[in-house]
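Table S7 (text form). Paired inputs.
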Amino acid sequence: MATRGADGAAPIPVWLLVRGLSRSTAHWGELPQALQAALRRQGQPEARVLGLDLPGNGRLWRERSPATIGAMTESLRTQWQDQQRALRATLADRPLALHLLTLSMGGMVGLDWARRHPGELSRLVLVNSSLSGLAPLHWRMRPSAWPTLLRLLALPVGDRACERALHALTSREPASRREATVAAWTALRQAERVSRPNVLRQLVAAARYRVDGPKALAGLGLPVQVICSAGDALVDPRCSQRLAAALGTRPVCHPQAGHDLALDAPDWLIEQVTALAD
């Protein structure tokens, strides 16, 4: 956790945004820019908002996805160290406070980072995440979602049809905006060809990562915020309730949004996140 610099200067908040299964930084849409603007209005003009991709996703789509969350954590941490050096070159060696905003499987990576490297994170936000050892499989991935996911993994499906199916599974966005989002996601799919083997390895990593009950999350030593969506058709919100209880906090739940809360209710999500910002 960052402390004040030798000259007493407060650390500069750096928000690192991490998505989940097969998704990239670009799938955050306009949220990074909106979060940056909100922090500026809040009196944090020096705050930075960055996005990094997990191996096999986004800009790293050519890389092989690790089959463990731990390996994903170390890749992300190495990327952050590179970013940190670049930031320090422009910020006169001011101390940095690293805040992770994570979605879905990205939350597992965030928790793993906090557990593996105590003191490196200043804050962690977990959105619609889940953990084996706290929640059963049929909560972590609703059975109603299995047929769609199996079809997309096992059968040849066109890019647009695939993204339309994923949108139906992860979003409750109004019909008036749906086609524009599907078109944007289709363009991303065509530019960032995440392979089926990489998706399978990510699924294996998420399934294998577990904690040995609530006590395993005690004493992380940093503020953790748990946020979920009541309309999530992919992950049961009870996963977030169990996670929050293990972390000694209470979840905040959007009453209508789907799994992709950053898409369905970005302003609401930013309001929750900045309400506790330094």
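Next pair, protein 2 of 2.
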Amino acid sequence: MQRQGSIGGSAAIRIRVTGGVLLVAHLAFVAWLTLRPLDVPWVTPPNLRPFAGVRADLALGGPVAARRIAEGLALLAPLGVLLPMAHGRLWAFPFASLVRTVAAGFLVSLGILLLQTGVPGRVPDVDSLLLNTVGVALAHLAVVPASRSWLRRRSERQERAAVRQEEAAQGRTPTFPRVGIAP
């Protein structure tokens, strides 16, 4: 019997462990990428106005703007998939799962933003916080509902196959003809 909508059996353990390992590896990569000191001759002031950096990137136009915005969306996007994968629930309310995942992605991005204030050469940017959070939400919406649905169908097929196999092992249930009422 599944507990709290979790994936059952050894498949659950494999999925959770894989999700946890990939989550730790991704967070270590993000920490290395975003918290390394940079040797720069000058530092721009921090961007504390929402979407000011995005507007400036769009003013540059073309591939430069697309690359910078895509980098902001993609940095923490894997969290949108890895967090639910590490949690391992098949039966979860989609909206609640989205809210939990986006909140966790927001908090990770906020932690990075706060830690960058003490790293030489790194400048806090509120736009990166917003883009990272949107990237987590988009990745979650693109992958998690479909994969949970596929895993639920697969689990139900396996349960039906196990029941059929058990019934075949037990043999057919005998049936008795209807007995009429005696006079």
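Residues 127 and 169 are 62 Å apart (CA to CA).
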